[in-house]
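Figure 6 in text form: structure in, sequence out.
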């Protein structure tokens, strides 16, 4: 979820997205967490919402609403844009996904259920995205906000560059 600033003076946590990992386990864990969260909070985790989350989890890159619509249509969930937008909105509101403003696209949350301010590293070459935690109340932004009497409620950091794989290809 993208809620208020974290306590403590922790640096960005290890990013999730660029490293090799057990992707099937990643998907199963996130879907199970979504099922449990929805059951515990009286939310409907409908088949279309589940499929939208699975689509986002299949790749660590942001997916636009129309690409999501195509994938949902191919899975038999209708072809009207509200189908995709409503599913994505549900996932974002409930902390299972984030919207990447720079790309006007969505990505599964790497830390579902955790109250955090995400920091995204977006590869300008392949559009893969890694997510890390940030601590906006600390550092220069927090200092500036306090000096202005501003209370930070939500932040999202989006950094653009090259992922390890694309950076390696650029050197060769």
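Output sequence:
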């Amino acid at each position: 979820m993208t809620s208020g600033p974290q306590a403590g003076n922790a640096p960005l946590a290890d990013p999730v997205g660029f490293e090799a990992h057990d992707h099937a386990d990643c998907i199963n864990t996130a879907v199970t967490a979504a099922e449990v969260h929805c059951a515990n909070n009286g939310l409907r985790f409908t088949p279309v919402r589940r499929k939208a989350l699975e689509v986002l989890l299949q790749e660590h890159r942001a997916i636009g609403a129309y690409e999501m619509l195509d994938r949902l249509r191919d899975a038999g969930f209708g072809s009207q844009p509200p189908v995709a937008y409503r599913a994505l909105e549900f996932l974002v509101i409930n902390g299972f996904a984030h919207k990447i403003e720079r790309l006007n696209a969505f990505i599964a949350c790497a830390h579902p259920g955790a109250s955090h301010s995400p920091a995204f590293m977006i590869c300008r070459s392949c559009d893969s995205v890694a997510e890390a935690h940030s601590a906006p109340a600390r550092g220069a932004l927090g200092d500036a906000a306090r000096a202005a009497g501003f209370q930070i409620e939500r932040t999202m950091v989006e950094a653009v560059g090259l992922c390890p794989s694309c950076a390696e290809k650029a050197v060769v």
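Caption detail: Residues 1-15 have pLDDT under 50 and may be disordered.
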